[in-house]
Structure formats: C-alpha cells, structure tokens
Write a structure and sequence with these properties.
The protein is mainly alpha-helical. It is 71% helix and 1% strand. The protein has a two-stranded antiparallel ribbon with strand order 1-2.
C-alpha cells in the first residue's frame, strides 16, 4: 500500500527514514562538521514534528503502513497507535535536546588533546558521533513502530550497534571496558530474543504481533508460558530489571554526558515498551507471569535504590536510581489493568524526561566542578546558582514530590495497587513508598554535598558553562516540569492508550483486519485452494 499524499500514513515511516537518510548524509560529509550539525538538527526536528502529528492522528485509531505494499502477515507493518506515537514524541524531544547539548560539549578529534576531559566528560569525535546518533534515533523509532517481532529484533540490533560505538567514543581504557561488558550482555539478550522468535514461529507459524495475538491462545498453555518467559528474559536484560541489571551502573557512567543521558533516558525504556506491548497484546490474561513480574518489580525498586543510597558518585547514584525506577513501570504492567497500564505509560513519559535532564545537568556539574565525586564537590550553589536549580527541580520530580509529574504517576500506581488488594500488590505499594523516600534521601544528599556544603578541595575557576549546553539542559528540565501543567490531558491520553493497548482488538483489526485484505501479501499457509490470491491471506 502506498500512503495517500499528505495523509497520516505518510508520517508513519518518517521517524525511521529521516534519521537513517540523514545518517548517510552526515557520514558522507564527515569532513564538514558544521554541515553535519545542521543536518542532524534538521533531521531530528523533522522526525519529532512527524511524531507530534502522529500523536493526533493515532488518537482516532492506529495508523498502519505496510512496508513494500505487502500486508500482514507476510509483510512488515509499521503501526502508530497511541502508545507508539506518544513514545515517539517524547523520545524525539529528548533526542533533540541531547543533540543540542552535545553540540556545545563535542569537539573535533583534532582538538581532543587540548580539552580538559575531566571537565567536559570526554571529547566527542564529531565525525563519528552524528551518523551513529542518528542511526540510534532510527533504531529507537523502528522499535516503537514495528508490528513484527523480527523487525523489533532488527530495531534492537540497530540500537546495539549504535550504542556500542557511542559508549566507546574516545577510546579510553575505561570506556572500552564498559563498552565490552555492555556489548556482551546485549548480545546475550539478542541471542535469547532471536531464540524466542524462532520458537514462537515454530509454534504458531507467524511473528506478526497482531496474528500472534490470535494464534497464541490456541497453543498449549505450558508452551505459551515458556515462550512468554523467554521473551521476558530477553526484554528484562534490555530494560535492566533485577537481577538482570548488574551491567548498567558500570557501563553508563563512563560515557560522555550526552551519551549517558540518552542511554539512561531512553534505551531501557525500549525494553520496558517491549514488555508492555507483548504482555498486553500477545500474552494477556497471564496471572502466573504477572505475579512473577510483581516480585521482579519489587526487587528492582528496593535493590536499585539501596545501591543508589550507597553511592558517592553522582553518575553512579543516578544509574542506580534509573534501575530502581524501572520497577515502578514494571509494577504498572504487572497489575494487568487499564488503570495500572495507564499509570505505567504516564510514568515512562515522566521518567524519560526527568532522568535524561538529570544526567545532562550532571554533565554541567562535571564541567563546573571538575568531578562527579561527592567527596570532591561542594559550594556549587554559590558558584553556579542556576545549575543548583537545574539539578534540584528534576531531582525532586524523580523523588515524587507533589505536585510534580513523578508524584502523579506514583499516585496512579499506588491507587491501582491498593485497588488490586492482593498481598503482592500491597507489598509493592509499601515498596513504592519506601523507594520514593529513599530516592528523596539520595538526591537531597547529593544536592547537599555538591551544592550546599563547603567543598573539601578548592574548585578552580573555569570559563562560564557554555550556553549551548545550559539551554538544552534547561529546556529538558522545563519540559519535565511542563508535564505537571499538562498532566490532565497527558493522563487522559495515557488512559486512552491503555484502553486500546489492553483491548487488543483495535490493534489487531487495524493491522490484520479479517484476514488482512489491505495489501497483496499472502500468508505462506494459505493455499490457492483456500483463496483466490486476491487478499492478504487469512492466517
């Protein structure tokens, strides 16, 4: 199917195609740093604008495009429903702000030796950074839009290739070591995912998610649960849920601030999105697995935040809070209700903006204070009062102080946990409150040591922080605060997203309506005797 000119279908592939095309251009023009920067910014602005358009278009129903004109289940479908469009938009804003921030921090490779790397978090090789970053953006968009398990695997592999390069930018021993650990863990999860896809295809004859939603309930319960757990294991590694999160606190803090920010804010959320999508669409009504997820969510919250409390480096502290707050999202998914799913969706949007903003601000702290160790920082509130505010606001938001968006998301989760009323749900309610209090303790301790107390060592005077780094960080902090202002409409959109996501019928009918007659594709298990070949196969 060729999308109608200027119709909503035209917007669907743009968040994938525009960054990919721009990545090729920036690679070809690697000798022209200013041109690379312009292309990257324009590409992400265009992709984000398309995502915003999809938010409104998808509110009337999923917008589906068949790649190559081949309909489901043979062809690959790109599906922009409310959930996918919302994730695309928030990730687009985040990717754009981080890119603008990186333009102020990054320096050409030839200048790397003249830059105080301890202060700027490491020089970014511009020629490599731009095409890799754009490929990462395309991989994220592909993962959110795909309606096919194998294409989701392709999206993860694009992310893996790009993130491995970004983690090791600069080639220091510490970054190569961290990148190697990340690469090994990511490859292990990819192997598990690929094995799960092969087994699912062997059991059902399809990997199209809409068709899987129809076929999986028909297979043996034991086989279905085994396939579900294998997928959850693969996605759990990518989402960094306990006990599969061991790799994250050692991998993320070593990278330059923009890279750490985009990883912390977005990459784990692709794993959470995959869990949410498969649990609600492909494996609904799985009470045993939901109980397992509740236990995992509780362990992720508690172990993660205890790790954060024990840290004395701001980057590592935030890395552990990242792990901990993934537990809140899994909590919402595991409740397996519309209200729980809506709260999880709202919390994902909140956490992407807040966690990314905090890592960008910590990059500024490193620039101004020369370190991220709390033993070496102090008095920054006097030296850089704006920086103190930029850290304080998202830190309180992360802890869930009312009336900020973190508080609203947690109230939604706690309310649904109380309504569920099971012992495990009550344990999660208590665990959520304890985790929030410990998060507040951890971030206030960090703010107090870095900004309020007298520095144990004299912090040398540096040139003022580049405005090109300060303003993108401030914009992202403002975006996080604005989620509180628009919390009503945003939560309403999350409610509608949860309703269609939990329903499943709307998604299935959009992708695979009555045998998929939207294109010329035909399922391999439909013979000429069963159909005249004019439709897309009835699966």
């Amino acid at each position: 199917m060729i999308p109608a000119a200027w119709g909503p279908e035209t917007l669907v592939p743009l968040p994938v195609l525009v960054p990919l095309f721009a990545a090729g251009l920036t690679l070809a023009l690697h000798r022209y740093a200013n041109v690379q920067r312009t292309i990257s910014v324009v590409a992400l602005v265009a992709a984000t604008a398309a995502s915003v358009g999809l938010v409104f278009a998808a509110d009337g129903g999923p917008v589906v495009v068949d790649v190559g004109g081949w309909a489901a289940p043979v062809g690959i479908a790109l599906v922009a429903d409310r959930l996918a469009a919302l994730m695309l938009t928030v990730s687009g804003v985040m990717l754009l702000c981080v890119l603008l921030y990186s333009l102020g921090q990054g320096v050409p490779e030839s200048e790397a030796e003249t830059v105080d790397e301890a202060r700027v978090g490491g020089a970014i090789p511009v020629a490599i950074f731009h095409p890799t970053y754009l490929v990462l953006a395309a991989g994220v968009s592909n993962a959110f839009l795909t309606g096919d398990l194998f294409n989701l695997y392709v999206g993860f592999e694009i992310l893996l290739a790009a993130s491995a390069v970004l983690l090791t930018l600069g080639g220091t021993a510490e970054r190569v070591r961290a990148g190697s650990v990340y690469l090994i863990v990511a490859l292990a999860s990819s192997v598990l995912f690929l094995a799960a896809i092969a087994l699912i295809y062997a059991a059902t004859g399809t990997i199209n998610m809409a068709q899987l939603a129809v076929r999986l309930p028909e297979i043996d319960d034991t086989v279905r649960v085994a396939l579900q757990l294998l997928l959850l294991l693969a996605f759990g590694i990518k989402a960094a849920v306990f006990p599969l999160s061991f790799w994250l606190p050692d991998s993320y803090p070593t990278a330059p601030a923009p890279v750490t920010a985009v990883f912390a804010g977005l990459l784990t959320k692709v794993g959470v999105y995959s869990i949410l999508r498969t649990q609600t669409l492909i494996f609904p009504d799985s009470p045993v697995v939901d109980q397992i997820l509740l236990v995992v969510a509780l362990a992720t919250m508690v172990i993660g935040i205890l790790g954060a409390v024990a840290q004395n480096d701001v980057k590592r502290l935030l890395s552990f809070t990242l792990v901990s707050h993934i537990g809140f999202m899994i909590f919402g998914v595991a409740l397996a209700s519309e209200a729980g799913t809506a709260a999880a969706i709202f919390y994902v949007v909140h956490h992407i903006s807040v966690q990314t903003a905090l890592f960008l601000v910590v990059g500024l702290v490193e620039w101004r204070g020369g370190s991220t160790s709390l033993d070496r920082l102090g008095g920054l509130a006097r030296l850089a009062p704006l920086l103190a505010v930029l850290f304080f606001v998202p830190a309180l938001n992360l802890a869930g102080i009312p009336p900020l968006s973190g508080f609203l998301g947690k109230v939604g989760l706690l309310t649904e946990g109380v309504r569920d009323g099971t012992p495990l749900a009550w344990a999660l309610v208590v665990g959520s409150v304890v985790t929030s209090l410990l998060t507040l303790y951890a971030v206030v301790k960090a703010w107090n040591k870095a900004f309020w107390q007298t520095a144990p060592v004299e912090i040398p005077e540096h040139a003022p922080m580049p405005r090109s780094m300060v303003w993108p960080a401030a914009a992202l902090v403002t975006f996080g605060v604005s989620l509180t202002v628009v919390a009503g409409p945003l939560y309403g959109y999350a409610d509608r997203s949860a309703a269609t996501t939990m329903d499943g019928y709307t998604y299935i009918e959009a992708v695979y309506p009555g045998g998929s007659d939207r294109g010329t594709g035909q399922s391999v298990d439909v013979t000429d005797a069963q159909t005249d070949g004019s439709d897309g196969g009835d699966g």
